[in-house]
Amino acid sequence: MRSLRPNPSCRYQTAETALARRVEPTGQMEREGFLHGLRAWQESCPCCFSSIHPEGVPTGPPMALDARDIAYVRSEFEPLEGACSREGLALGRVRGMVHGHQLPKPPYVLPDGTEMVPADYFDLLHDAGSSEGLEDCFVERFMSAAAEGGEPASAEEAAQSWAEYLSGEYFVCLKRATPEDIVRKGWLVPRIEKLVHEPRRADAAWRRELRSMVDELDSLERQFAAYDRERFGSPSSRDRLITAVRREYL
User: Fold this and answer.
1) Residue 166, domain member (yes or no)
2) Average pLDDT of the chain?
3) Does residue 8 belong to any structural domain of this protein?
4) Are strands 78-79 and 108-109 parallel, antiparallel or unpaired?
5) How many domains, in total, are found in the chain?
6) DSSP state of 164
7) Beta strands in the chain (DSSP E)
8) Lesser CB count within 10 Å: N end or C end of the chain?
9) Domain that holds residue 221
């Protein structure tokens, strides 16, 4: 397994995130402990995931991406510098906004230090009208989408999703990391898991329901880089809930 490239100025080393993991009877790895450590690492050392030093300047890239990962990232994302140029924003200013928790971290950093973001990276900023209004815009849309889906979100759930949005991890898994698609994925995942936990292969209605949900999740999710399985410490949701479910049940 590849290891993260250490950042010599990092004060929160990789080993500190290697929390114990437990395997469920289904074989699914419990990820909460790892993700808690990952987020603590991100908060403690923003340079490790965005290549942005606390002073706002680029640092050495931490991601051990191989050639296939790089090809995938380049096909799905674009350089932050180019996105800033298109928007008429200074790269240094945007990096400062990332460090100030006003914009999400770039989800990938290439070996040459290039920060990569999705094409719609600035869309929510446009909708909010300003970086100061970004959090309120995200939370309002998140809670509205949750309510429309029949499962109203608490303020704590909205705040947690906002923190996860700032981490950049939603850009890794979703084709469009809108609050609405974030809510929809959160609705689909536990329902697919529940259906496959008690499979009824001979039941045509069960298979139709499962297929419909898997197809919808497929329409929302990216393919993921091989590296993502390593940095998040488990198979991706695509691996578990789309590829494996189709192979086993559909």
Assistant:
1) yes
2) 80
3) no
4) unpaired
5) 1
6) H
7) 78-79, 108-109, 115-117
8) N
9) 14-249
Q: Which two tokens stand for residue 1?
A: 């397994």
Question: How many Å apart are CA 82 and CA 57, to the nearest integer?
Answer: 17
Domain-located, residue 209: yes
Residue 140 has pLDDT above 50, yes or no: yes
Query: What is the C-alpha separation between 18 and 129, in angstroms, rounded?
Result: 39
Cα(41)–Cα(118) distance, integer angstroms: 23
Residue 174 in tokens: 């979703």
Evaluate whether 99 touches 56 at the Cβ level (below 8 Å).
yes
Written as six digits, the tokens of 98 are 């990332």
Q: Residue 7 domain-assigned?
A: no
Residue 2 scores a pLDDT above 80: no
Give tens-digit pLDDT for 76-86: 999 999 999 99
The answer to whether residues 118 and 178 touch, using CB atoms and an 8 Å cutoff, is no
The amino acid at residue 16 is E
Report residue 204 as tokens: 């045509």
